[in-house]
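Board work, copied verbatim: Protease HtpX homolog
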Amino acid sequence: MKSRFKPDRGLNRRMLATTFLLGLLYVVFIGVLIALIKSAVLAIVIAGGLLFAQYWFSDRIALFAMHGRVVTPEEAPELHGVIDRLCALADMPKPAVAIADVDLPNAFATGRSPKKAVVCVTTGIMRRLDANELEGVLAHELSHVAHRDVAVMTIASFLGVLAGLITRITLWSGFGRSRDQNAAIVVLTIVGVSAVVYALSFLLTRALSRYRELAADRAAAILTGHPSALASALTKVSGEIARIPSRDLRQAEAFNAFFFAPAIAQGFSISSLFATHPPLERRLDQLAGIARELGQEG
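↓ predict structure ↓
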């Protein structure tokens, strides 16, 4: 069943292109490994098991890492009420609803399919946003579920995990400590190829991550009809995150690609090429444009 979230052909094309390019890169990488070492098969099997676990249990893994728990309508009636209304409006299955008891104001969606999805909000974001702002954030997260980009991002991260695992196995193995010159050359080749594969997969997934955030903003603003509320939530959450100590933010940075707004430690800046999210200004400009299209300027 298709939801009423506005389809995003640009996002679909990018997800397809990213999956194809990463798949091609994976085939080449595996071919090189098999040609160089027999033990590559073991590493591939291990990495495949990790991918399966990450994909199949992604919701449980994410909730455990963020100290989140699924809550019932009796435990969080207002939160469930908002998600009930949005799911009815979007004509999509209702995901599980979870709350993470952390002060970091954020939210994320996870799960391998719309029927197995979880939308989680932190207690920090619930305390800081009003009803309309929280509705915009939840619509943003539900659009990730409807567009199925959460599952694609989970799969896309596999190649980088594999490249890192291959490098570690090679360096830690007895083969990697061999004094034989040919063996040393093979080790350096594997490490070099793994580094290139990791870098390319990293750039491809980050580019997809940035676009999917813009797509989620667009879909949420159009579904709710209140782009200004989502813009207000973005501004408020980003400002609050900037006030949180760097030490606390670093603990959550591993989840940046899935957060509503990135948890970036104070004083830390990176090129937009490596960012998980587009700049705040670009997101706000897009929402302002949607407001004008809806006749809400001023």
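Residues 181-224 form the longest helix (44 residues).
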